Amino acid sequence: MPLPPLTGHLEARRRLARSARAGTLPQVLLFTGPAGIGKQRLALWLGQLVLCEHQDEEPCGACRSCRLVAGLAHADVHWFVPISRPKAGDTDKQVDEAAEALAGIMEERRKRPLYTPADGMASHSIASVRLLQRRASLTSVEGGRRVFIIGEADRLVAQESSPEAANATLKLLEEPPAGALFVLTTLDPRRVLPTIRSRAAPVRLHRLSDAEVRGFLREQTDPRWSAEKIEERVALAGGSIGAALTEGEDAGKAYRSAEQLLAAVIEGPGPALERALGQPAFAARGDFAAMLDALADTLGEAARGAMGQPVRRSVPAPLLRHRSPAPLLLAMEKVNEAREMAAGNVNPQVLLAVLGEDLAEVL
Ligand SMILES: [Zn+2]
User: Fold this and answer.
1) Is the N or the C terminus of the chain less surrounded, counting Cβ atoms within 10 Å?
2) Is the pLDDT of residue 206 over 90?
3) In sequence order, which residues have a C-beta less than 8 Å from that of residue 34 and are 6 or more positions away?
């Protein structure tokens, strides 16, 4: 089963295609943007584009190369995703184990192209990095370019225990082999090792429009979702196909937490605010970061409203009483500061308490 078609990101596609055709495409790219918007899918699209037999604005989708990439079967496209840490004792065996794990995941994705994100403990361990180096040192199988996609590059483990592996990775990205293209993806560039980040050309990607998410769900759900379910999910998805596809409890969880927090902050000091700030719900750092993203997004939406622009998603009504966007933009800044600190080692509970006070002051 081929991958579902790429949705949205038209401007980024145009820019990437233009530089690919002009021969100015950097050899190391870092795609950044929110979860579930198709960053790795866009990386595969780019792989298709540079390998396509017809050098056009878009990959033709029909030539042998395009079909192999879409079927995750092109010998020169290497897609690395986070995996569980290999258990073998011996280094070479660990690399083999990593190769098998990746092959297994690709096999799964061929069967079920709408995959779920890697679990929180998966990473790009030293074994994956050694495998990447091994593959990068080989020549092209098909005689054309080679494409290396490293999904969730923030999960590349810092390799203090193995300086030679770390140095080899840096050298690979600093002087990529001729014809090799590396595309790294991440939610947040600040979480990528600085030595790697500084070697990559950033490509910032954005949330999809509700219409794009809706279009995807109409075409790609199997069995087809009802119009009612689609509208429900689109409303909760915040421009992320991944969020729209998440079943049950998790759907819109980040947005609901963000709305509860905002409602409590607006209501002012009292039991609701204490409850909102005391919530122990953010067991995983990723959940906390997702809530902060949803918070910034909701405030941004309210700021649009305050500037008289149409609001694209539901926003707590009291936020819309602001006549000027200034306090909302200030609140967004506070959220972004907290977001930055959340990437470090600060306790989410402490951050949330401080953020709650800051927001109460400006809103
Ligand atoms: Zn093609």
Assistant:
1) N
2) yes
3) 187, 206, 207, 238, 239, 240, 293
